[in-house]
Automatic annotation (TrEMBL):
It comes from the Bacteria. The keyword Transcription does not apply. Catalyzes the conversion of GTP to 2,5-diamino-6-ribosylamino-4(3H)-pyrimidinone 5'-phosphate (DARP), formate and pyrophosphate. GO terms for biological process: riboflavin biosynthetic process. Coiled coil: none annotated. CDD domains: GTP_cyclohydro2 (cd00641). Its EC number is 3.5.4.25. This is GTP cyclohydrolase-2. The lineage of its organism: Bacteria, Pseudomonadati, Pseudomonadota, Gammaproteobacteria, Alteromonadales. The keyword Flavoprotein does not apply. It catalyses: GTP + 4 H2O = 2,5-diamino-6-hydroxy-4-(5-phosphoribosylamino)-pyrimidine + formate + 2 phosphate + 3 H(+). SUPFAM superfamilies: RibA-like (SSF142695). One of its GO terms (cellular component) is cytosol.
């Protein structure tokens, strides 16, 4: 029986020039489900270096459709800018749309939130946990990129804990609280109150 992380396989990599800088995109596939994840790497490092990384969960609405209903698109852009400013780093782009429930179910959850539920209540009303994501693929992806020690750009303590459980040395957490808007302030407040997210209170001030 292969361990969960051994189900992931590196397939290929290529140059990816972007408006933020020239990255390399690395494609990984999960053997059983065919789910594809990618890593964007920038610059070089030694195994003993501390590398800035972002674990970014796919959010079509935020990442590609300019939604202000969440902070994802703002965080994606800021994370890539941080990596380029630092001179090196990695962004793991994980196909975990909707905190793992998928795009159509996220739209169903949004519909329930339009009726007054919060983002946790909506997931649970649909029969899902508040957060269905797992992070075992990060181990295979970071090992392939020779990243052992990380500075993690996140407000989500579950990501820090998940990497530590994978024996990845999380040296520091760097907040990434960009993109607070009038449309997502309540969503973010719910994440701090119910999902343990660490946002500085001043940025959510009323
Ligand atoms: N089910 C559900 N998923 C959502 C909702 N809003 C955003 N998402 C998904 O949540 C994921 C992003 O998670 P966030 O909670 O924004 O942030 P995080 O990645 O957990 O934490 P950070 O690293 O601090 O950004 C993406 O997969 C989004 O599609 C929602 O209302 N319901
Ligand atoms: Zn989003």
């Amino acid at each position: 029986m292969t361990s969960k992380s051994q189900q992931y396989r590196f397939v290929s990599a290529a140059k990816l020039p972007t408006r933020k800088g020239e990255f390399t995109i690395h494609g990984f596939v999960e053997e059983n489900s065919g789910v594809e994840h990618v890593a964007l790497s920038y610059g070089t490092w030694q195994p003993e270096d501390v590398v800035p990384i972002r674990i970014h969960s796919e959010c079509l609405t935020g990442d590609a459709l300019f939604s202000t209903r969440c902070d994802c698109g703002f965080q994606l852009e800021r994370a890539m800018e941080n990596i380029v400013e630092n001179g090196c780093g990695v962004l793991l782009y994980l196909r975990q749309e909707g905190r793992g429930i998928g795009l159509i179910n996220k739209i169903r959850a949004y519909h329930l939130q339009d009726q007054g539920m919060d983002t946790v209540e909506a997931n649970e009303h649909l029969g899902f946990d508040a957060d269905m994501r797992t992070y075992e693929m990060c181990k295979v992806m970071l090992d392939k990129l020779n990243v052992k020690n990380v500075e993690l750009m996140t407000n989500n303590p579950r990501k820090t804990a998940a990497l530590k459980d994978l024996d990845i040395n999380v040296v520091a957490r760097k907040p990434i609280d960009h993109g607070i808007t009038k449309d997502n302030k309540n969503y973010i407040k719910t994440k701090t109150e119910k999902l343990g997210h660490a946002f500085d209170p001043h940025i959510l001030g009323d």
